[in-house]
Amino acid sequence: MPHAPETDWSCLKAHELRALAAQNAVVILPIASIEQHGPHLPTMTDTRLGFEVNIRAARKASATRPVVVAPVVWSGLSEHHMPFGGTLTLSHATFRAVIRDLVDALVRHGFRDILISNSHGGNHIAMQQICDELAPTSAATLVATTYVTEAGESLSRHLEDQAGVMHAGEAETSMMMAIEPDLVDTSELATIADGMAAKRFLAAGKASYRWRPFAHVTGNGMAGNPARATPAKGEAMLEAGAEALAALILDPETWAKPGDKRGAGTKGVPFRDA
Predict the structure, then answer these.
(1) Distance from chain centroid for Cα 187
(2) Which residues contact 200 (CB under 8 A, 6 or more apart)?
(3) CB 26 within 8 A of CB 141
(4) Which of 172-176, 253-257, 270-274 has the lowest mean pLDDT?
(5) How far, in Å, are 42, 226, 261 from residue 216 at the CA level?
(6) How far apart are the first and last CA of the chain?
(7) pLDDT tens digits for 124-134?
(8) How far is CA 272 from CA 110, 260, 264, in A?
(9) H or E element: which one contains 172?
């Protein structure tokens, strides 16, 4: 039986990566964080889960199109978690510069379809802004995604009493139980549920935003009920996330070039490219 192609950038040789660029491989650039995850999960939770989902997605998609997963950018935007310790965060300017430089390096190597794949909620808005800044002049097609939202209902349907994934709650605890069980402290899961209202901790009014530290909604740095977590749920959710990203990668519309309906001009004045 032939071996599945290697999809982990860090395990490949330089000439193998040059060959992947020549084959028009998709590059997944994972972005995540190192930050506190309550009293029971390690600080690498978002980074570990992001890598796992993306590697699984790449393996699923690679039978149809080559895919390679770059090393995870573990340094993200986590200022809201600083009050609990254990958190490493970047400024917005540094984060944007890091992503911009990495995208530029990928483009210089010949990769033309790049999926910036996020696994930390604090990166979401900045990730979209980075795409807005880079896409108009980049030689590559840039797509930004967060696996939790891309998987949507197919992921959250495995949760018992939460509408979606919450920080260090049922979902993340379940997924870490599935892949890093030795790093999950299960000794007090039944008593540490907290921050159940965290979904609105950045909300104001009916549809407005305000910044708040995570300590505004939780006393122990987590949100949700990890007592509901099981390894079986975690495996199902990891697969749901991977399936959603694989489908995104293999959808031709994801990488389609933008259309142009302008025609020759209007009012007798021709259009010019910017």
Answers:
(1) 29
(2) none
(3) no
(4) 270-274
(5) 21, 20, 48
(6) 52
(7) 999 999 999 99
(8) 28, 12, 9
(9) helix 170-179
Locus of tokens 């031709």:
252
Its sign, for the CA torsion 240, 172, 98, 203, is positive
Q: Could you give the CA distance from residue 137 to residue 115 in angstroms, rounded to a whole number?
A: 16
Nearest of 64, 68, 88 to residue 76 by alpha carbon: 88
Q: Which residue has the tokens 């495995």?
A: 158
What single-letter DSSP state applies at residue 144? E
CA 49, CA 33: separation in Å to the nearest integer?
11
Burial class (CB in 10 A: 0-12, 13-18, 19+), 36: buried
Q: Return the amino acid letter for 263.
A: G
Domains detected in the chain: 9-256 (3.40.50.10310)
Beta 141-146 vs 113-118: how paired, if at all?
parallel
105 confidence band (pLDDT: 50, 70, 90): very high
For helices 170-179 and 45-61, give the axis angle rounded to 10 degrees: 70
Phi, psi of 26 (to 5 degrees): -80, 135
Map residue 266 onto helix, strand or coil: strand
pLDDT at 2: 53
Fill in the DSSP letter of residue 169.
Answer: S
The angle formed by the CA atoms of residues 199, 202 and 207, to the nearest 5 degrees, is 90
Please state whether beta strands 26-31 and 67-69 pair in parallel, antiparallel, or not at all (unpaired). Answer: parallel
* pLDDT of 53 above 60: yes
Phi-psi group of 111: left, alpha or beta (phi > 0 → left; psi -120 to 50 → alpha; rest → beta)? beta
